Amino acid sequence: MKQKFTKQTELVLDGNHSAAEALRQINPDVFGFYPITPTSYIGEKFSHFVADGEVDTEYVCVESEHAAMSVCIGAAAAGSRACTATASQGLLLMNEVIWNASGMRLPIVLINGNRSLGAPLSIHCDHNDIMSVRDAGWIQLFAENAQEMYDFLLCAYRIAEDKKVRTPIMVCMDCFQTTHTKINVLIESDKAVQKFVGEHLVLNSLLDIENPVSYGTFDKPNFYMEHRRAQLEGIKNAEEKTKEIFDDFAKTFKRGNSNLLDEYQTKDADIAIVVLASTAGTIRRTINLLRSQGLKVGMIRPKVFRPFPANDLLTSLKQFKRVLILDRMSPAGATHGTLCSEISALFYEEKICPQIKNVIYGLGSRETTFEDFAEIVRDFDNLPQEPKWINLRED
Fold it and tell me: Which of 190, 201, 181 has its CA nearest to residue 154?
């Protein structure tokens, strides 16, 4: 196999191509793929690596996203490293087998380009698709940009394959804002990546005829709950394992840290803004503007949504009297957005609870500028208890 990078190299890449480059270096055994906007380019670029002999991967072109995940399940059960990429309706079409993957504790890696759901049809960004599968038993990492997409993928298999975890993992990036936006990305040497990711630990392979196993068998009532509880232990263990591997990544490649939260200007802040993924860049600019006007505002960005970093968030948010939570998804009948609901629940047994307000923004990539966010922060005390929708036409 050709070695493309012998030392750390800086390239101008978008999220799709940084993901494909990470997969080339990891060299998974099986890639099951069906194209969908905005992640089609991952499969296209990776197919070039296969055709040019740069990877040993079995590239399986299938008839649907359901089939793509099914290929990954079969491959992982047989003992292979398997991966795929999708978004939006493709993720929903996978939904049935996504639950099978987590129920069988198969360490599959899925890349999702967070995209709106139809109807009405939209190919633009929000988090309705990824939030629809938040409780499917998968680990979920949310990358802010193309660099984090690359970095998180290098960590993904190590997290998912750990003996105490054995749980599939989604590495998520925002549609177009990250998938198609180019930045300077540090790509590590092939050798360093392969050493960091390590050899695949095969457990309970269907092809091990000396130690036969079964996957996805029928569960009667006297065992089903125990299997679900055991599955929960795996994803709970992923929290500490993710910190450990993030820390190892930081020490190996000299960037990043072990924290599950990315905090900006929080030490002396009076108001905290909580946000996921690519919008963090806009919020940093919002904070800089507000601080120049005398308002002490900080940001907390969870890098991990599943397992939900409850203890870390509670510890960080306790210091604030006011918390503004940004949800890029439609509550669809719920009282608040998903991120807001989960954070609010953390304070259920706490004696002191901050004033929490929820904002719905950017559905279908509706433009929301740093000035828009700054105006919301300035008006915090007048915001309603129900979620405030930014830039919604009311006429």
Answer: 190
Residue type, 1: M
Phi, psi of 42 (to 5 degrees): -65, -50
What does the pLDDT read at residue 4? 86
Model confidence, pTM: 0.96
Q: Are residues 149 and 16 in the same domain?
A: yes
Query: Is the domain of 136 the same as that of 277?
Result: no
Q: Report the candidate in 136, 88, 96 with the shortest Cα–Cα distance to residue 364.
A: 88
The residue whose two tokens read 């304070």 is: 347
Give the chain's end-to-end CA distance (angstroms, integer).
Answer: 60
Tell me how far apart the alpha carbons of residues 287 and 308 are, in angstroms, rounded to a whole number: 25
Label residue 127 by pLDDT band (50, 70, 90): very high
Please state, in angstroms and as integers, the Cα–Cα distance from residue 49 to each residue in 5, 53, 99, following that order.
Answer: 14, 6, 30
Give the pLDDT mean for 214-224.
92
C-alpha to C-alpha distance for 210 and 194, rounded to whole angstroms: 30
Q: Which domain holds residue 271?
A: 261-389
- Together in a domain, 247 and 337: no
Residues 348-370: tens digit of each pLDDT:
989 889 999 999 999 999 999 99
pLDDT at 1 over 60: no
Q: How far is CA 371 from CA 177, 286, 293, 374, 382, in A?
A: 18, 7, 13, 5, 17
Of 9, 53, 55, nearest to 29 by C-alpha is 55
